[in-house]
Design a protein that fits this description.
6-stranded antiparallel beta sheet, 1 helix
Length: 382
């Protein structure tokens, strides 16, 4: 059985305020029985793009601004500030890309403007009520930019290595972190434990980045379809490395099929000796009737996976919360053999979910390009 959930129309007029799921005349979306819609946080013209949680603070971005929330009470986040991105002559202007994988350590926050000017922007966010841009670096912007070694260094999706030890004076040190490796760039880089990184590239690379200017290649995956994002639970101690892909199709009819990107598991058993790991399973979306939790037609991104996160208690098996664009948030279970099954969902009305993030062992924030963000409660088995 599915449940329809509602949103107060008045709440749409109060950016950053919450409306309970039961309020209002219109539907917010549809959920499986084990998922509860707790609240909705609207954003400016929708466009909530990405998020990061550091301690009790949530950093949420759009293409026009970023906001910082106090999430001490995770069911009722309190907005502390909204900072517009400045354009020419100080006027607000979109930074096009990258805001979707928020790079911050809670002290500095990085935006890598791929378009139109390929500029790196560095903000001081220690005062959550008054973030300030403290530096820029022309020509260094790439699609994503990731913190390495507590944001003292940055790795870009096109290979840039940036020295950020003095955040007021970022320095481009190297054009390609993957020089001489099977992949010289990728969509994203994560530091899965201090000094060690995993790249969203084809193939995936495992790197020792303790000397960030001279990363050392430790292992590669099998070659594979486009990798959008990656996680290695428990700081690389877990058997399963996790990835998502991304597919996009032009036009108005983008139906789900075996070419649609999904979330995958990779067996890392013995990787230190074999220097490789292999894919075990991929979970892809399917078309449906909407009331069954699956849209009929999805254009242009609807069937694709995007940003995801494993449950805090993931240990060689467990839950994943994943953004799947027009398919909303999907709760997936990885079993002890690496097989993936869907165990719950939230399908928003007129949504495009960018990513899903575990805030507690029960609460997930679903960041949505077209809505803002939704607070979901997982009531199923952990």
């Amino acid at each position: 059985m599915k449940r329809l959930i509602g949103l107060s129309a008045a709440a749409l007029l109060l950016a950053g305020m919450l409306s309970p799921a039961s309020a209002g005349p219109g539907p917010d979306g549809i959920t499986s029985d084990n998922v509860e819609h707790v609240a909705f946080v609207p954003f400016e013209v929708g466009t909530a793009t990405g998020a990061r949680v550091i301690g009790k603070f949530l950093y949420v971005t759009t293409w026009r601004s970023f906001s910082i929330y106090d999430i001490s009470d995770p069911e009722a986040p309190v907005r502390l500030s909204t900072t517009p991105f400045a354009g020419q002559d100080g006027e607000p202007s979109p930074i096009k890309f990258e805001n979707e994988d928020v790079a911050t350590n809670g002290k500095v926050m990085i935006f890598s403007e791929e378009l139109p000017q390929a500029t790196l922007h560095v903000f001081d966010v220690e005062d959550k009520t008054n973030p300030v841009q403290i530096s820029t670096l022309a020509g260094a912007g790439q699609h994503t930019m990731s913190c390495i070694l507590d944001c003292k260094w940055l790795y870009g999706s096109d290979g840039a290595i940036i020295d950020l030890r003095d955040p007021t004076k970022p320095v481009l040190m190297k054009e390609k972190w993957g020089d001489g490796m099977p992949a010289t760039g990728g969509h994203d880089v994560i530091e899965y434990k201090p000094g060690f990184a995993m790249t969203s590239s084809n193939p995936i690379l495992i790197l020792d980045v303790r000397n960030p200017i001279k990363p050392k290649l430790l292992a590669t995956s099998q070659e594979q379809e486009f990798i959008h994002s990656a996680q290695w639970p428990r700081e690389g101690k877990d058997r399963w490395a996790l990835t998502s892909g991304e597919t996009w199709v032009g036009g108005v009819d983008s139906r789900c099929d075996e070419s649609s990107a999904g979330v995958s598991t990779w067996d890392t058993t013995g990787w230190g000796k074999t220097k490789t790991f292999k894919k075990v399973d991929t979970y892809r979306m399917k078309g449906g009737t909407y009331t069954d939790g699956n849209p009929v037609i999805n254009a242009p991104f609807g069937c694709s996976s995007h940003w995801f996160q494993q449950h805090p208690n993931f240990n060689n098996q467990g839950l994943i919360a994943a953004g799947y664009y027009n398919h909303g948030t999907r709760f997936l279970n990885v079993d002890s053999k690496g097989k993936i099954s869907e165990v719950g969902f939230f399908l928003p009305n007129a949504g495009g979910t960018s990513g899903a993030y575990w805030i507690t062992d029960r609460l997930v924030y679903a960041i949505d390009y077209q809505r803002g963000f939704d607070i979901l409660k997982w009531n199923g088995k952990i």
